[in-house]
Fold this protein.
Amino acid sequence: MRLKNLVSQFESLETPFYHYDLDLLKQTVSEVKELAEKYDFDIHYAVKANSNERILSELNDAGFGADCVSGNEVKLASKVGFSSESILFAGVGKTDKEINIALDLNIKAFNCESTQEIEVLNDLAGKQNKVAEISLRINPNVDAKTHKYITTGLDENKFGINQVDLEVLVSKLPEWKNINLTGLHFHIGSQITDMNVFKGLCLRVNELQNWFEDNAIKIEHLNLGGGLGINYLSPDEESIPEFKTYFGIFNEFLERKPGQKVHFELGRSIVGQCGSLITRVVFIKNGINTDFAIVDAGMTELMRPALYQSYHQIENLSSEGEVKNYDVVGPICESTDCFGKSVKLPETRRGDFIALRSAGAYGEVMTSRYNLRDQNAPLYTE
Ligand code: LLP
């Protein structure tokens, strides 16, 4: 459904708000499901990308599991209906309170990122007379070639256990009676568009799992994380990401041991393109170089441009006028509160609806109440 056709529905709503195209979400999900079934891959949706309950329910109905990074995400996934068997808990700094929430709910497994964390988990599981299943998140030192703020798999990053520490960790395993190591976990970054990067990851994973096998540790699960990028430049031309190529690479290059399960934790690629932030133009203000289109959404509703200088396509849904240049900015008292400089838009007036596209992932979840902003409910269409 083209957003322009929805403008009459938008008229009565308070802006800014997120619009979700559930039809596109369903098409995306069905493509992921089909390929995952073909290759026998399991999908755990990365809840952090969008934890909107309506969206979570769709993904639960699709049969995906949930990849959570906080106690509250674990609780929400469970509340929305994800079975405890389908919930994973990752994160570099899980607190005791969060670990206990996950133990109480008997989730499937913890993705652990340090020896120190495993010691605490072993202790807390022991107090509940439980044995917690864990995967080790290993930092594979593979360059994801993405924005430096969302690269996670290099030696300089805080994530995962470094390979030099593995020997000592493995030697301690027999002491930890309340954990059971069954899997390996990798996630090297987000918004990855160079598919060769995933091939490099597969080759590193093959080496690493052989090392574990040589040390008599059976790896029942491999979790390759998320990271597949979306096309921010042309959301309409590529509304569903290249899942075929992505899964095909893992199918071709990952050496799978007999009976081994393979998991993915996709976030952005599933929900990114189905969401847009809809905003109204408050004023057109004269500028020295370029006029400003001041809209009623700001970095408080969509933080990505301010934080990562990221590009979101900007579309005027109300005008067909002559094309002009505008700096599209929000109302927040920060100079980084800018969605785009010298953006070509049809002549734009006060009251026009503007869509900031490809905002379904890391949009609504990263909103803040800075400046005591209102938060309006999303609109869903099918
Ligand atoms: N698994 C782990 C361990 C992760 O840390 C992440 C994302 C994912 C899976 C999902 O990755 P995805 O498929 O969505 O790329 N706020 C940033 C993105 C941060 C990503 C954090 N980790 C942004 O707006 O670009």
User: Anything to note?
Assistant: The chain has a mean pLDDT of 95. The pocket of LLP is lined by residues 46, 48-49, 67, 90, 150, 187, 190-191, 225-228, 265-269, 304, 308, 361-362 (CB under 6 Å). The first strand starts at residue 17 and ends at 21. The domain at 2-17+273-381 is CATH 2.40.37.10 (Lyase, Ornithine Decarboxylase; Chain A, domain 1).
